[in-house]
């Protein structure tokens, strides 16, 4: 998922904000952990994906604070302050608001956020807490706190993404030193990160089967898709540098009777470079709860990912989501799709327009294949976000118990909120204008 260095108002007001399904968790396993503070580069209200699946489950059992990137104002009329927004299961989204003068002074901006978070932690009584990182860049504002446990949930190779901060690789090395546990968003990413951390664990993309399984039952056709002819070849996800634009262009030109439905916000790339043939339909971002109704109307689902540095380590969540909806799937040869889905002959793999077209032709008949349906459902029965979350909790409890027998349940009396020595970075003065 793309890193975000600054938060802009249009993005924060995006209508693509996602919501969880009614069945946020299939089971409810009791557990005890300290408060959880997550540092993320993804906005909670943007697209419902791995962080939301996991942290909404944590929030069912305890306090969760989701710290987003700072929001920079266009002027210096405001003083640094924190905004709190309550979301699913009482989870609190924490956003630091900073004046324009700090936008290009990273050290001062980090110091301002550190001071805001220190005050917020005191106000909330946060003295016994786990830090959960999605971005190493958050160390700038958080490295001086003293969590009882540090988890790095490495869901992507962020350094390979477009516009990645130059400091990201260096910060990740620092985070590896601090982390007690490293979770990875896929097997390929695990194979890379296990060389950098002794306690790394692979947790590939999982599935909310009940939510996406709705596509197998009666659902109303969305109005903006209803008028599109069949066969429909679909894709949903963020449309960015990972999308194989030339593959989409070639397929749409070579198969004019196929209708290509693309769902998702366009970010980090110029929309003008996208194919504009009459049979390609860009429907924009959709709410998470709406996705099953779109999937139900597709004949084949695709993973149109390019072969580049940004896709080398991805483990697309949409693979099991497509399958849970009952859709045949064709994908480019992303390693974490080939293993296991291609190897198990659940998803067809093709690496060029001609072969991809042939695979779609085969997939158009696959719904009648009872053996494929049975094997697909048998595999999906082995994975779920609940199982992933519970396994993560188990590892966290083990590491806490190894540190101190009562660390998971007892606040250390008198423990300092932060290290006693903190480097102070003076904030630039407010503009006189």
UniProtKB/TrEMBL annotation:
It holds the Pfam family Glyco_trans_1_4. It comes from the Bacteria. Residues 1-25, 411-433 are annotated as: Disordered. SUPFAM superfamilies: UDP-Glycosyltransferase/glycogen phosphorylase. Residues 12-25 have a biased composition (Low complexity). This is Glycosyltransferase family 1 protein. The lineage of its organism: Bacteria, Pseudomonadati, Bacteroidota, Cytophagia, Cytophagales.
């Amino acid at each position: 998922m793309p890193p975000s260095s600054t938060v802009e108002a249009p993005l924060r007001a995006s209508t693509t904000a996602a919501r969880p399904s009614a069945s946020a968790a299939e089971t409810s396993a009791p557990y005890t952990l300290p408060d959880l503070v997550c540092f993320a580069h993804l906005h909670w209200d943007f697209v419902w994906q791995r962080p939301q699946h996991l942290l909404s489950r944590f929030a069912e059992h305890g306090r969760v604070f989701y710290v987003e990137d700072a929001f920079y104002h266009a002027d210096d009329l405001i003083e640094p302050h924190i905004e709190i927004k309550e979301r699913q299961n009482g989870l609190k989204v924490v956003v630091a608001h900073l004046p324009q003068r700090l936008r290009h002074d990273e050290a001062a901006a980090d110091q301002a956020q550190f001071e805001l978070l220190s005050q917020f932690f005191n106000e909330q009584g946060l003295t016994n807490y786990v830090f959960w990182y999605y971005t190493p860049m958050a160390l700038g504002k958080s490295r001086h706190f003293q969590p009882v446990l540090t988890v790095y949930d490495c869901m992507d190779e962020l350094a390979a993404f477009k516009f990645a901060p130059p400091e990201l690789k260096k910060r990740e090395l620092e985070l590896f030193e601090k982390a007690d546990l490293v979770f990875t968003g896929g097997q390929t990413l695990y194979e890379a990160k296990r060389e950098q951390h002794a306690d790394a664990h692979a947790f590939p993309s999982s599935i909310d089967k009940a939510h996406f399984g709705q596509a197998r039952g009666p659902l109303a056709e969305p109005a903006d898709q209803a008028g599109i002819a069949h066969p429909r070849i679909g894709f949903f996800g963020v449309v960015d540098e990972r999308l194989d634009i030339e593959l989409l262009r070639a397929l749409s030109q070579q198969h004019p009777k196929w209708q290509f439905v693309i769902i998702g916000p366009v970010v980090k790339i110029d929309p003008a470079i996208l194919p504009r043939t009459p049979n390609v339909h860009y429907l924009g971002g959709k709410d998470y709860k709406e996705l099953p109704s779109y999937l139900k109307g597709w004949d084949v689902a695709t993973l149109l990912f390019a072969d580049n540095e940004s896709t080398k380590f991805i483990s697309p969540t949409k693979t099991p989501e497509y399958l849970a909806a009952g859709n045949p799937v064709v994908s480019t040869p992303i390693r974490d799709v080939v293993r296991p889905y291609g190897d198990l002959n659940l998803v067809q793999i093709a690496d060029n327009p001609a072969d991809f077209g042939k695979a779609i032709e085969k997939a158009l008949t696959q719904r009648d294949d009872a053996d494929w349906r049975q094997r697909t459902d048998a595999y999906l029965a082995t994975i779920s976000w609940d199982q992933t979350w519970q396994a993560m909790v188990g590892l966290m409890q083990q590491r806490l118990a190894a540190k101190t027998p009562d660390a998971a349940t007892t606040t250390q009396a008198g423990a300092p909120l932060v290290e006693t020595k903190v480097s102070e970075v003076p904030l630039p003065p407010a503009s006189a204008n």
